[in-house]
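Schema walk-through. Below, the input block comes first and the output block second. Nothing else is stored per chain. Lengths vary across the set, and this one has 84 residues.
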Amino acid sequence: MALMITDECINCDVCEPECPNEAISMGEEIYVIDPAKCTECVGHFGEPQCVQVCPVECIPVDPAHVESQEVLWTKYRRLVGVTS
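--- output ---
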């Protein structure tokens, strides 16, 4: 599953630097998460780092991008350039 940032975001800037996949960027009004890059920190950390640091708890699972752990691991390997 990819994560998403809801409109409760206060643009506090703490999530973007925490993302190891550089999936978080500033959108038109609030930060957004690129689902093609979001692995929920699989391969990097045990828990999504953006969720851990968000002071307003506005980063839930994106129901439009439900993915299994296996898919997240595959995405992680692709993002970091692991071919096996």
